[in-house]
Amino acid sequence: MFVIEDELKKLPTSPGVYLMHDKDDRIIYVGKAINLRNRVRQYFQSSRDKTMKIQKMVSHIDHFEYIVTGSELEALVLECNLIKEHSPRYNTMLKDDKAYPYIRVTVQEDYPRVMFSRSMKRDKSRYFGPYTSVGAVRDTLDLLHKIYKIRTCNRSLPKEIGKERPCLNYHIHQCDAPCQGYISKEEYRTHVEGALDFLKGNYDPVLKSLEKSMQEAAAKLEFEEAANWRELLFSVQKIAQKQRITDSDMEDRDIISYALNDEDAVVQIFFMREGKMIGRDHFHLKPETEELGQDILEAFVKQFYAGTPFIPKEIYLPLELEDQELLAGWLSEKRGSKVTLLVPKKGDRKKLVDLATDNARMVLNKDTERIVREEKKTKGAAEQIAGWIGLTDVHRMEAFDISHISGTQSVGSMVVFEDGKSRNAEYRKFRIHSVEGNNDYASMEEVLKRRFTHGLEEKKQLAAKEKGELEVRFARFPDLLLMDGGKGQVHVAEKVLAELQIDIPVCGMVKDDNHRTRGLYFRDEELPIDTHSEGFHLLTHIQDEAHRFAIEYHRSLRSKGQIHSVLDDIPGIGPKRRKALMKHFGDIGAIREASEEELAQAEGMNAASARSVYLFFRAPETASKITAEMVDPD
């Protein structure tokens, strides 16, 4: 058993990372420390002044673990990796997970290519970016291929020169076909150098060249050709006009600032490469109460640069960070050369930071209303549902449904919603093993017993530290159980939970004649709900998801030939008679118990077919001997 007071005494004084867990073994906070004993003990000292965020987090800590590192820098690297992997609830997290595109020039090849890339690799290629718009990158690549006629193929040149015919790009004048030897290596290289100059932001040579080509074509009365040069000229001018912010020192740098209110935070970042602005982007973060700008920026720097392959030489910030030197050391190690974090106090650099601040403030003001609307539909809706039934802190909800065809081989579904958002990765599906026929209550009982028995077993293993190769699939229990039905399904769930000694509130989603939720059944009482509210919309979404997930699982099994009616195996009983029998008797159980006379009363049945069905369920070996002549096919 984990006793926090005892474990605090065992903490080392080494640098490292600590991970706080809740009762369901979820990692709710990851932090680093230069002295683990001093840092972790601070959370549990009643005499210390704690922010509301820390107080709330500590109230949920069930146990903690730690990893010792060789230095504070190693602890920082590990902290960044663990935060990215686990997304702890009480760490300030980026809401956006963006991957930026790059333009890659394979300068190491004899005949280089210019191409789109999703990542940077250490492969001797020249990379430009990151860019904030995939569309802009593709437009730039199209333009470069039209102007400089650089190849796009994957042929190994010069080894494969002349082995295949030139591709379409040669015929539409977008490639000079080095694959055929139509252009020398030296001349092709000058085209590549021109493309590199263009990507560096040196547009003047190409602008002059395009204008000259346009005028020459017009002088020769080749107006269609002149129009083509004109379109290329306009495209280059459009790109050049976007480079309004420049810096004479030609360095790579990112300019970062932020804006913060009571509900949300926005970080704005400008990307400057070789002295020119190539793009900008913004990120939303969800701060806890009482967090300051310093905390927001530090969380952003750790998470953003842990996930991006390009680290600039300089990063401008609006204020000093607590671990600024440590962060600079970490970034320098990632880049492979020195990285400096600066807080400009005056001049053009200060103006750039101020501009980033203004942009962050504008985005925050613009998006606040949208964010509030989204939260009303998710977390707000979940809180509304909890309010209807008198509960608080309903973070996780699970809903269940049963699906079958004619009562045969039923399946069950479990869907999970946290703070009003679906957690698809935690959906689970079940094949019903112990129930025959159309018995949704018994099927639901089996599903719930299996779900929570697995959960209890996993919790025991986690508590005993017997994780090993354990895949935690059921250990996290819901704050509220939602049943797709009313009184009957609720009582089944309550019975299962009582047998397993688990205390979880159970609520039924009562449906009207149109199979839509009309109210909630809770503690033997049907509660009306506002059908125009966000809580109602979330309930119907949960109900639809549980139903959809069960149906899709059932269909996937049928498509694999894993589910079929037992009636399919009766000699002489085709689709029409199977359908007629199910319509007449309702389920397989009733057909099994029917007499020959009762079976013959179903539409399309006769004495011979009725006898075939009767014998199949009572003496299968006799039924298998019935020949086709004895039974009329339908």
SSE blueprint and pairings:
Elements: H1 4-9, E1 16-21, E2 27-33, H2 36-43, H3 52-59, E3 63-68, H4 72-86, E4 102-105, E5 114-117, E6 126-128, H5 134-148, H6 168-171, H7 185-199, H8 204-219, H9 223-241, E7 253-260, E8 265-273, E9 276-285, H10 293-307, E10 314-316, H11 324-335, E11 340-342, H12 347-377, H13 379-388, E12 396-405, E13 408-418, E14 421-422, E15 428-431, H14 440-463, E16 480-483, H15 487-499, E17 506-511, E18 517-522, E19 526-528, H16 534-559, H17 575-585, H18 588-593, H19 596-600, H20 607-618, H21 620-623
Parallel strand pairs: 7-10, 10-11, 12-16, 16-17
Antiparallel strand pairs: 1-2, 1-3, 4-5, 4-6, 7-8, 8-9, 12-13, 13-14, 13-15, 17-18, 18-19
Helix pairs in contact: 4-10, 4-11, 5-9, 8-9, 13-16, 14-15
Structure description:
The longest helix has 31 residues, at 347-377. This protein has helices at residues 4-9, 36-43, 52-59, 72-86, 134-148, 168-171, 185-199, 204-219, 223-241, 293-307, 324-335, 347-377, 379-388, 440-463, 487-499, 534-559, 575-585, 588-593, 596-600, 607-618, 620-623, and strands at residues 16-21, 27-33, 63-68, 102-105, 114-117, 126-128, 253-260, 265-273, 276-285, 314-316, 340-342, 396-405, 408-418, 421-422, 428-431, 480-483, 506-511, 517-522, 526-528. It folds into five domains: 4-86, GIY-YIG endonuclease; 102-201, no CATH class; 253-375, Ribonuclease H-like superfamily/Ribonuclease H (Nucleotidyltransferase, domain 5); 383-559, 2-Layer Sandwich (Nucleotidyltransferase, domain 5); 566-630, Orthogonal Bundle (DNA polymerase, domain 1), CATH 1.10.150.20. Helix 5 (134-148) crosses helix 9. It starts with a helix and ends in an 11-residue tail after the last helix. The model is unreliable at 620-634 (pLDDT under 50). The protein has 634 residues and is of the alpha+beta class. The strands form four sheets. Strands 12, 13, 14, 15, 16, 17, 18 and 19 form an eight-stranded mixed sheet that branches. It has a five-stranded mixed sheet with strand order 9-8-7-10-11. Strands 2-1-3 form a three-stranded antiparallel sheet.
